[in-house]
């Protein structure tokens, strides 16, 4: 058949020689939202700019015109280009960065590659994302040894960064004290006391550290926590799912986490299905197999292993039949953001709007923002909802009721009010986490406030009536 | 202002079809409904699939409503809806099963020598663990050409041989349909898990997997069927009847679904073993099979509708199977060689034909691993870039072979064209690498 000729739809192309429209509602033309939808929840699923939608669909046609030429002769070069751009963005070497489908896949790759032993410990946080926590639970749920023991640090926000670091350090030391009979000698290469001799390595501790938590959405002092962990001989897996495209100046060569991951399809505005997994050279020996195991798996004792070791990069080049377009449109993603003015312009606008919008929202709802000092907020303000606060957990809101309320809010916001921000129960109260993006304005927050006022009144009148 | 939902196509024939009108005859005229480049002669549908244009058009629209429809697939394979989940691809499915087993010292895992690279590699990975527990990996050696009867005999013989070699191990952890199954967990010591190809990749051969499953049941061996190539090619897959312990297939190969979709079948009786999806998800609670895999596949209904419009599975089968056999004969003529599958037992849509290159009697006599890699690379470049066609090519049992794919848009002349290309390329190989 003749190759289809396409004409781009409205918003699917832009003239890079002309300045973009001003940030705010004028930019909505480059995004795919239905006209009346007010998106204050970019944080959950990202928002794909129309020019990247266009690039993806063009690429899809190109792939289908000859899948063999594409997969066998063209794919790898394109993949490496994307890896290079992302690695540069986080100040890492290209060969320390591979692409996987999403943050959960990246987390599983690391967690499932550790060879767990009886006595090993994993330290999580109460705010650790569900799929990460579940993966550790699954590992610990094994019906027989070996399986790690799980500890969870309770973070109840608001907290200052200093308080977070203190809580973190205390927990690590507490774990060691509780298990003083265990020799935690399997420390990361970057820590003092590291030994090459495998027989000397007994047990290990791994900490999963959020760079930006999900609920609430707050910036954590992760670089400091990585440093503390390193001092304590603890492995760090940094979950930066929300980080690239929101957090400025990510410098992995400087921060030196043992493992790091981030979603390109959140704040970077990439196509859903692309995350970066960073494993510094010194730790690549640990990642024995991609998940799932790939064609390029290097078995110890083979020639391939002699040449490439675990082959971290080659193992992750092809993970089976899938839609690879999210990996390959990264250049177009960066080009669009460049056109908007680059990272500083984008995050300058968003972080300012996050503060103003959060404040305005709190005024409309007559409540308060979670983060008074501003230390914890980048582009995602967290604001309390106008619902009663309970002093003891379960007093007012048993878990089933929390779920009911959340489902109610979700459905009404999306279907009746045509707007959304994530909402969650935390520390006795209900909160919302907004996302300030380049297509938002303060009036969006005001609208959301009106919606929450109405809905929370309804919640009190119905779900909480009997209380 | 309504946002444009995806690219606007200038009117191009093939981007949609009228379900009330008959389709064009199979062959050259159907090509317009596929996104393949006009000049490209595709005889390698088997590797990556070919997405029909109407489905590509549809999936490039922003899908705000995504449907899940395991019913369609469940019906096709003869299983219950709750026994089927979607995963991104066949590798994921195989990994899910194999990584959920809690391996113990003494366990045996059996893979066929012809298993697709990625499937075998996960077995290798599991047994490469630097300390216990890890299963011992052994393989069943298949040297094609083989008849069904020979395959069955090979499997049974080698399986029993391995059991004898490990006579000291109590393989009492048998699947629930096997004699000697006990519900008492403490009585279950070790297990044997066999990965069986429903359809091998290289060569592309339909295996007598139902018979192999029966043997596994008798012998107390868990059977995982890797049937990546099956849905949309193999007729009458009836899992309720065949009763494998686990079965998987790619929907984006022969079923025309969009790349990124495979199905994993786990019968009710085994679901308690599948504790976690891969990766472990939000919904993990210990074991809730279906809930953990809510991955949508929105092109299944469209794929099925298109296949119905083409005339349904039987019509597609009749055309493709006949063309596979005739095309292979023709190709073998042009190449002055032979087809691998003399009696047609192993061939559905993917015939295997020998290439005109030297055959070696002893492994390594003519072809080192490096030479094999060089020849494969040369084939890939020349076929794709100079001749604008493709078939997979591989070295097996001393000889070189190609595995073609007969699809609804192919005709006999495609095989003739491929033959010309292969003759020229093989001459080139001999010239470059054997002089």
From TrEMBL, chain A:
Domain of life the protein comes from: Eukaryota
Identification of the protein by name: PLP-dependent transferase
PANTHER family: HERCYNYLCYSTEINE SULFOXIDE LYASE, L-CYSTEINE DESULFHYDRASE
Record carries keyword Transferase: yes
Pfam assignment, any one: Aminotran_5
GO MF assignments: transferase activity
Domain Aminotransferase class V: residue ranges: 76-142, 201-282
Alphabetically ordered keywords of this record: Pyridoxal phosphate, Transferase
InterPro entries, per the entry: Aminotrans_V_dom, PyrdxlP-dep_Trfase, PyrdxlP-dep_Trfase_major
Top-level taxonomy: Eukaryota, Fungi, Dikarya, Basidiomycota, Agaricomycotina
Keyword Nucleotide-binding: no
Automatic annotation (TrEMBL), chain B:
Record's keyword annotation contains Transferase: yes
InterPro entries assigned: Aminotrans_V_dom, PyrdxlP-dep_Trfase, PyrdxlP-dep_Trfase_major
Keyword field: Pyridoxal phosphate, Transferase
UniProt-recorded Gene Ontology molecular function terms: transferase activity
Record region (Disordered): 1-24
Domain of life assignment: Eukaryota
One Pfam family this sequence matches: Aminotran_5
The keyword Transport appears for this protein: no
SUPFAM superfamilies listed in its UniProt record: PLP-dependent transferases
Annotated ranges, domain Aminotransferase class V: 189-335
PANTHER family: HERCYNYLCYSTEINE SULFOXIDE LYASE (PTHR43092:SF2), L-CYSTEINE DESULFHYDRASE (PTHR43092)
Name of the protein: PLP-dependent transferase
């Amino acid at each position: 058949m003749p190759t289809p000729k396409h004409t781009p739809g409205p918003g699917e192309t832009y003239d890079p020689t002309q300045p973009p429209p001003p940030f705010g509602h004028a930019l909505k033309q480059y995004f795919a939202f239905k006209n009346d939808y007010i998106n204050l929840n970019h944080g959950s699923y990202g928002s794909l700019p129309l020019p990247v939608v266009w690039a993806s669909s063009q690429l899809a046609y190109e792939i289908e015109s000859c899948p063999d030429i594409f997969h066998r002769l063209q794919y790898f070069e394109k993949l490496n280009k994307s890896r290079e751009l992302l690695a540069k963005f986080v100040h890492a070497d290209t060969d320390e960065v591979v692409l996987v489908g999403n943050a959960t896949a990246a987390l599983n790759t690391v967690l499932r590659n550790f060879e767990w032993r009886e006595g090993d410990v994993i330290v999580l946080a109460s705010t650790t994302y569900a799929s990460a926590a579940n993966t550790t639970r699954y590992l610990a749920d094994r019906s027989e040894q070996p399986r790690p023991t799980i500890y969870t640090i309770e973070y109840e926000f608001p907290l200052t960064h200093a308080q977070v670091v203190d809580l973190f350090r205390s927990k690590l030391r507490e774990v060691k004290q509780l298990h003083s009979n265990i020799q935690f000698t399997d420390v990361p290469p970057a820590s003092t006391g590291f030994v090459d001799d495998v027989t000397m390595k007994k047990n290990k501790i791994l900490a999963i550290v959020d760079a930006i938590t999900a609920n609430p959405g707050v910036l954590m002092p992760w670089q400091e926590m990585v440093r503390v962990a390193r001092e304590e001989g603890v492995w760090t897996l940094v979950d930066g799912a929300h980080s690239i495209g929101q957090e400025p100046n990510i410098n992995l060569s400087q921060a030196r986490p043992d493992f790091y991951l981030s979603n390109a399809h959140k704040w970077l505005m990439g196509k859903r299905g692309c995350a970066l997994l960073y494993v510094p050279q010194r730790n690549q020996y640990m990642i024995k197999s991609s998940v799932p195991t790939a064609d390029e798996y290097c078995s110890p004792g083979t020639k391939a292993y002699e040449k490439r070791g675990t082959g971290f990069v080659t193992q992750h080049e092809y993970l089976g039949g899938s839609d690879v377009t999210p990996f390959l449109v990264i250049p177009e993603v960066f080009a669009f953001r460049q056109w908007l003015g680059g990272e500083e312009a984008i995050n300058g606008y968003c972080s300012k709007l996050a503060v103003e919008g959060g404040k305005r929202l709190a005024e409309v709802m007559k409540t308060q923002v979670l983060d008074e000092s501003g230390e914890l907020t980048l582009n995602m303000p967290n604001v309390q909802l106008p619902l009663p606060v309970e002093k003891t957990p379960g007093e007012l809101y048993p878990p089933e009721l929390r779920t009911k309320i959340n489902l109610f809010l979700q459905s009404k916001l999306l279907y009746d009010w045509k707007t959304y921000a994530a909402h969650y129960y935390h520390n006795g109260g209900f909160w919302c986490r907004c996302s300030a993006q380049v297509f938002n304005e303060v009036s969006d927050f005001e609208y959301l406030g009106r919606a929450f006022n109405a809905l929370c009144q309804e919640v009190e009148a119905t779900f909480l009536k009997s209380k | 202002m309504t946002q444009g939902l995806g690219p606007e196509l200038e009117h191009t024939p093939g981007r949609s079809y009228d379900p009330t009108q008959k389709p064009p005859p199979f062959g050259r005229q159907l090509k317009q409904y596929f996104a393949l480049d006009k000049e490209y002669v595709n005889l390698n549908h088997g590797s990556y699939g070919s997405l029909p244009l109407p489905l590509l058009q549809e999936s490039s629209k922003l899908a705000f409503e995504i449907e899940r429809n395991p019913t369609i697939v469940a019906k096709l394979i003869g299983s219950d809806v709750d026994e089927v989940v979607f995963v991104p691809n066949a590798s994921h499915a195989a990994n899910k099963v194999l990584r959920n087993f809690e391996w113990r010292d003494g366990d045996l895992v059996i893979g066929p020598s012809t298993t697709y690279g990625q499937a075998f590699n996960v077995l290798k990975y599991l047994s490469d663990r630097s300390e216990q527990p890890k299963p011992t990996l052994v393989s069943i050696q298949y040297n094609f050409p083989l008849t069904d009867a020979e395959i069955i005999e090979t499997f049974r013989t080698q399986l029993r041989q391995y059991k004898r070699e490990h006579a000291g191990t109590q393989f009492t952890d048998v699947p629930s349909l096997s004699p000697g199954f006990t519900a008492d967990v403490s009585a279950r010591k070790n297990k044997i898990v066999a990965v069986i190809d429903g359809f091998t990749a290289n060569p592309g051969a339909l295996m007598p997997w139902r018979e192999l499953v029966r043997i596994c049941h008798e012998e107390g061996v868990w059977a995982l069927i890797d049937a990546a190539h099956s849905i949309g090619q193999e007729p009458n897959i009836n899992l309720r009847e065949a009763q494998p312990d686990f079965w998987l297939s790619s929907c984006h190969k022969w079923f025309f679904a969009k790349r990124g979709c495979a199905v994993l079948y786990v019968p009710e009786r085994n679901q308690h073993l599948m504790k976690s999806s891969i990766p472990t998800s939000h919904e993990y609670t210990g074991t809730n099979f279906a809930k953990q895999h809510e991955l949508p596949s929105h092109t299944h209904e469209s794929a099925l509708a298109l296949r119905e419009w083409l005339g349904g599975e039987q019509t597609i089968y009749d055309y493709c199977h006949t063309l596979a056999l005739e095309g292979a004969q023709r190709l073998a003529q042009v190449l002055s060689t032979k087809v691998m599958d003399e009696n047609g037992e192993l061939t559905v849509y993917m015939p295997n034909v020998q290439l005109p290159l030297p055959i070696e009697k002893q492994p390594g006599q003519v072809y080192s691993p490096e030479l094999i890699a060089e020849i494969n690379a040369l084939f890939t470049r020349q076929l794709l870039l100079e001749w604008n066609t493709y078939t997979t090519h591989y070295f097996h049992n001393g000889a070189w072979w190609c595995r073609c794919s007969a699809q609804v848009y192919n005709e006999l002349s495609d095989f003739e064209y491929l033959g010309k290309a292969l003759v020229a390329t093989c001459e080139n190989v001999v010239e470059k690498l054997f002089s």
